[in-house]
C-alpha cells in the first residue's frame, strides 16, 4: 500500500510501487507481469513462452513505436516540457507486459531520480532505455490488444497457439 490516489494519471506510481514491492518481498522471482485488470491472460501459454526466454534484461509484450501526442485533448497528451523528444523508445503497451526479475529493481531505483511521466508504459521504457537494462522489448505474437471481443474468440485463439 502506498499513499496516493488511484487515478489514471497515477498509473505510473502504481506500477513503480508494484516494482518496489516485488524488489522488497519477491526479489527471487524470475519474471514480473504487469497487466490491466480487464485483460485475459493465458498463463499456460505465457509459462511455455517464458521457459524458452532469456532470464535477464528482458521485456516482452505488445511493442509499440511512436512519439508524443501534443494535442492537449488527447488521453495520451504529452507536453513538450515533460518529454521534449519527438520519438519514444520502443515500449510495451501498458495493457500488459512481462519483465525479467532483474529489471523491476533497476527501474524502481532509477525512478527515484527520474522525472515523472504519467504514461506508465512510456516511463518504464524511457528508464529501461536509459539504463540499458532492457536491451530491446520483444513482441509476443499472442499479446493482442484488440480484435478479440468475446471470451470464446479469446479461448479459441489461445488454443490455436498452444501447439
From TrEMBL:
Main location: Golgi
GO BP term, example: protein O-linked glycosylation
Subcellular location: Golgi apparatus membrane
InterPro entries according to UniProt: Glyco_trans_31 (IPR002659)
GO terms for MF: hexosyltransferase activity
Pfam families named in the record: Galactosyl_T
EC code: 2.4.1.-
GO cellular component terms given for this protein: Golgi membrane
Protein's UniProt name: Hexosyltransferase
Keywords of this entry: Glycoprotein, Glycosyltransferase, Golgi apparatus, Membrane, Signal-anchor, Transferase, Transmembrane, Transmembrane helix
Membrane topology: Single-pass type II membrane protein
Family assignment from sequence similarity: Belongs to the glycosyltransferase 31 family.
Gene3D superfamilies assigned to the protein according to its UniProt record, in alphabetical order: 3.90.550.50
Keyword Transcription included in the entry's annotation: no
